[in-house]
Structure to design on (325 residues):
């Protein structure tokens, strides 16, 4: 047989094998067939897996699936010490890149800088827009919380309100206090910060505390809730139990909060697009690892704020119900 015929037969055999290999890859790809499988991206948040954080996790998982990378996602349920130890453990366990939320930046600073010193690219996400450089991260994915608060203050001005209550459900979360701070900068009336620490753990107790605050001060005509569950399951029941027609706005979304907006019992929700925060955190770390890109140019990558009101609630409600908004 001639050399040319041998080459031709070899090519046919190679194509046949490639076809079999392709079918196998679609069903059960191996690490050798997917070079990205060796990339392990770790997303370690202060999240509790609830209405908000389950959506951020879905975004991270979707990006990991799209890119073919390995994902380690862990929340710490607002336990800053646990989050810091998770980051440290992730460094030892071979994280290629780390994304972390930073509501209490000092608590995770040593761990994040240890990752940076180990040559692991890092980003902050959700909270930490003003401190990400101090933590060694090359960018932040989220919204500027002061800017979000300012926008809320302007919304309440449009409604002619005089006194809004700003309940803070996590005492050590600087992002929450920044939201209240921003609202106070633009609101023409009075903003009262209200300590509701631990409110998400017991929404019934949180509602009772808000009810007492409303009973104690009849000048309060609005509530700027900093979480959709606090808004829909604590603030709204408190106001309704007293027969008050308060204007209630919230940061973040849930099916219940959006239904309340549709029903006219709440006025707005600020959408920081947490699905995008999870998705972009994984994607930007992948680009840094695979292509040397550091997106953001040393500034945050903003995912919000945007507003959901009665004018556009129907467009968003189905996506929230599906768990991607």
């Amino acid at each position: 047989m001639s050399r040319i015929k041998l080459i031709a037969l070899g090519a046919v055999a190679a194509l046949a094998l490639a076809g079999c290999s392709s079918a196998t890859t679609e069903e059960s790809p191996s690490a050798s067939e997917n070079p990205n499988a060796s990339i392990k991206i770790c997303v370690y948040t202060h999240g509790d897996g609830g209405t908000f954080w389950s959506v951020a996790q879905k975004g991270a998982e979707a990006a990991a699936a799209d890119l073919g990378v390995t994902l380690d996602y862990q929340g710490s349920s607002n336990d800053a010490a646990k989050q810091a130890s998770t980051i440290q453990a992730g460094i030892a366990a071979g994280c290629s890149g780390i994304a972390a939320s930073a509501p209490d930046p000092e608590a995770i600073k040593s761990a994040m800088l240890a990752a940076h010193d180990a040559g692991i690219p890092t980003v902050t996400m959700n909270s930490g827009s003003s401190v990400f450089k101090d933590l060694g991260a090359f960018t932040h994915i989220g919204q500027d919380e002061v800017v979000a608060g300012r926008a809320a203050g302007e919304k309440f001005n449009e409604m002619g309100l005089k006194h809004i209550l700003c309940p803070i459900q996590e005492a050590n979360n600087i992002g929450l206090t920044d939201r209240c701070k921003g609202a106070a900068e633009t609101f023409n009336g009075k903003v009262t910060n209200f300590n509701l620490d631990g409110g998400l753990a017991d929404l019934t107790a949180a509602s009772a505390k808000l009810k007492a605050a409303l009973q104690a001060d009849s000048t309060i005509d609005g509530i700027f809730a900093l979480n959709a569950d606090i808004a829909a399951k604590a603030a709204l029941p408190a106001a309704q139990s007293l027969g008050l027609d308060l204007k209630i706005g919230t940061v973040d979304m849930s099916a219940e909060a959006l239904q309340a907006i549709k029903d006219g019992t709440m006025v707005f929700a600020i959408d920081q697009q947490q699905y995008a925060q999870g998705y972009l955190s994984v994607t930007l770390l992948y680009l840094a690892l695979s292509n040397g890109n550091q997106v953001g140019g040393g500034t945050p990558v903003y995912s919000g704020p945007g507003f959901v009101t009665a004018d556009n609630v129907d467009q968003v409600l189905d996506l929230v119900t599906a768990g991607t908004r």
